[in-house]
Fold this protein.
Amino acid sequence: MQELINQHAFFDTIFQYNIDTIVVLNKDGIIIYRSDDMQPSLGWQSNELIGTDIRHYIHEEDIRVFEAALYTACTLRTTETCTYRAKACSGQWRWITSELINMLEHPAVQGFIMRSKDITDNIEAAAKIKEKEAYYESLFCNHPDSVTLLNSAGQIEDANASTTRIFGYTKEEIINQHFASFVKPEALETSQAAFAQAWLGKSGWIKGTGIHKNGTEVELSVTLVPIMHQGKVIKVQGITQDITQVIRAHQLIKEQTEAQSSIFESINEGFLALDQNFYITYINQVCATLLNESKEALLNRSLFSINPDLSSSIFLRKCKEVAATGKSVHFQEYFPFINVTLDLDIYPTKKGFAVHFLDITDKIAQQENFEKLFFVASKVLNGVLILQANGTIEWANESFLKVLDISLTEAKGKKVSEILGENNINYDTIIKIAQRVQNGVPFSEDIAFTQKNGQRIWLHVDITPELDKSGKIKRSFFILSDVSALKDAELHLQQQANALFLKNQDLQQFTYMVSHNLRAPVANALGYTDLLYRVQKNDPVYDKILNKLKTSVTRLDDVIKDINTILAVKDKDKPNTKQPVSVAGVFRQVHERLQGALAECGGQLVTELNEDYKLNTDKVYLYSIIYKLVSNAIKYRSPNRPLKINLGAWQDAEGKIVLWITDNGIGMDMQKVKSHLFKLYKRFNTNVEGKGMGLLLVKNQVEALGGHIEVASQLDSGTVFTISFNS
Amino acid sequence: MIPQVFIIDDDEMSCYLTRFMLKLQQAASDIVTYFDAEEALKAIETGLEQGNLPNLILLDLNMPHLDGWEFLDALAPLEEKLTNKLKIFILTSSVDPYDEERSRAYSLVSGFLPKPLSAETANLFKQQFGVNNNE
C-alpha cells in the first residue's frame, strides 16, 4: 500500500504540471482518484469527489453521451473522447471534454483514467462567432435593402438578394460589374464622387436614379460605408434602398396638394376650411381678398376675430347645423361688414367645416337691374322683340304681343313670318330685314304694317344684332315704335314737296309761256299799233296794217285760250273724277272716231291688249290723250309708206299698266327735239299744220292722271310713246 | 342804208312788221326773211364762200326745228370768219331776263332787242351801218 501511496505521490507530482485534470474511475464510474486541479474551474475538493459516482456531476442531457463513450471505452478497450457539461461546486455548468482511457486491465489502475479539460470558454467563443455570423447574415443576406461590397475599382464583389430584387439581375450578373452600370448617366457623377469619398474613409449618402434590368428607372437612396482594416479602407459597402414608391408617393402627394391648392386658388369660388372652433385652417386667395387681408395673416385666426358680427350670422348658425347633422347646407347671406352677398355651401369635414362660396353681389345687382329693365321693356309702349340667331322669337313685350294679339307662349320659338297675318306686312320687307341683320351692324327701317282692323300704320324698327366673341350673331333686338303720325307727316311733306316741285315746274312753264307765247302776239300788236301812227289813214297800207293788228289780237286771244286749257289740265285740285275705265274700250272709241281720217290716208290701226285691263282714271282725259297721240301719228305719217299704228297695253311686274302707241311715220331726231318736245307751240315740222300744243297738253293730262309719258323716235322710221300708270 | 339785212323768224306777222319798220325808216335796202333758221344758216355758209354776207341779222329765239340758240351754236365754228363782217341782234318777244343773260355768252351777238322793232332802233341801225357803208 505504501507503494501505492508513493505511486500517488508520483502522479500528483506529474499532474501538477498538467493543465488537464486527471480523474480515475472504477468500472462502475465511481471516482477513485482525482489529481489536484491546477485550474479549479469546477471548484470541488478532491476529498469531496472521491467515492462519488461521476454521473452525479454530469448534466442529465449529456449523460447519454458520456455513457456511450464509457461503454465504448470499456467494451472496445479504446480511448474515447466525449464532451459534456459538468456541475461546478458553485452550481454552474461547465463544458468539459474528457478522454477516457481504459486501464481496467492495468493492475495498478484497474479503472478508467479520465483526462479532462474545461472548454467552456472555447464553446462560448464559438457560439459568439456563430451568433455574429447569423447577425451578419441577417444584416447582409436578409437585408431588405441592397447591400453590395465594392472593391477599389468600383466593381461589385458581393451583393445580397435584395440587390437582385431591386435591379432585376441575377447575382451572377451583378458580381464583378462596375456599379456604374446600374446608375443612370445623369446620376453617375454624384455617385462616383460619393464613392471616391468613401475610399477616403468618409461614409456618405446620395440619392439618385438607377436602371432596372427591364429598362425602367428606380429611385435610389444609397449609403456608402468604408470598411476599415488596420486604419486602411479595404472595401466599400453600399446600402441601396429602393425609394421609387416613396418618391412617387411623395410626388403624388405633392402634385395632389398643389393641384388642390391651385384648384382652390384658381376657382372664382372662395374656399375656407375651419376647425370645430372656427379657426381658419385653410383659406384661398379669393376669400382672403374678400376679407381684405393676406392669406398668411388670416390663417389660424378665429373667424370671430376677423369680425365679431359673424357670431350673430346665419353663417354661424348654419355651421352649427352642419356640425349637428353632418350634412352639407346651401344658403345665401349678405355680409354688411364687407358689403357683399355670398352664395355659400358648408360641408362637414373630419376636423370642422369646408366652406365654398361665390360672390353674387354683382349678380344680384344685375338681377335687380334686369328686373327693372324687364319691367320697363315689358310695359313700355314701344314693341320690343328679341330674336334668336335662327330668327325665332325668344321674347317679346306686351306691346308687341298686343298688336299681333298673341301670347308670349304662342309666339316663343316661332319665326316672325309665322305669327304675322298674310296682309300685315310685305313679306319681302321681312326677308330684307333678315338679310340685313346678318351684317351684324345696327340699323333702322320703317315698315308699313296693316293692323287687324285694316288700319295701316308705320313702324320704325331699330334693329341691333348682338354678336358673340367669334363675331357670330347671337340674337337680335328689335325696338318698334309707331311712327305713323310722323310718317304720315313725312309723306305729306314729301307729297307737298313733289307738288311744289311740279308747281315750280308749272311756274317755269308759265313764265316761258308768258314771255314767249303770250308776249309774241302782244309784241306784234304793239308793233302794228305803232305803225298805224306812222302811216297815213288814206295810205292803202293802213288797212293792211289794221288787218294785221286784228290778226295779232285774235292770235293773242287764241294763246290765252290755249294757256287756259293747259293750266286747267294742270289744276290737280279739282274733284276726283276717277273711275274704273276699260283701256280696250277707250282704244275702240278713239279708233271709231278716227276711222274716217285713217281711211282717207289708207292707214291701219291695230290694237293688242288684254280686254280685262282696267285703269282707275278719268275717262275723258284718257280718251283725249289717246286721241291726240293717234291724231299726231296720222298727221306726221310718212309719205313714203302706208301708215301703220299699233295701240297696246301690258301690265309690268309691279302691277303698273303701260300703254304704248307706235307708228311708222316720219319720226323725229331725238337729239334735237328732246328738250323742247313737250313745250307750248313747239313744232318740229314746219310743213305740217299745227299750233304745237298737242304734246304739252298730252303730257299735262298724263301727269294729271298720275302717269308718266316717254317718247322714243327715229327720223323716217317712226315714233313710240309709252305711258305708264301706277296700278 | 344797210346793204343787206337777214330777218330770221318763223312768225310771219312779226317778220312783216320788222321789214315794214326797216323800210319805213329807210334803214335797209335789201331785206331777206327766213322763216326757217336752217335755211338762213345755209345762206350764210354760202355767202361766206362767195364773199356775200348780210351786214345785219335780226334773230328770233323761239322757233320750231332750229331755234335761235341752236342757230347761234351752229354758227360758232365760223365765229372768227364772221366777226367784223356781220352783226347779229336778237329780236325776240321774250322779256325773260334769263334769255338776255344767256345771249351775252355769244360774242357774235351784239345786242338783245325786245319786239316789236321800234323806229328809233331802226334809225340807230341806219346810222351805225350807214357810216360804215359810207366808208
In short: Residues 131-135 of chain B have pLDDT under 50 and may be disordered. The CA atoms of residues 27 and 126 of chain B lie 5 Å apart. Chain B touches chain A through 31 residues (CB under 8 Å). Chain B has one domain: 2-134.
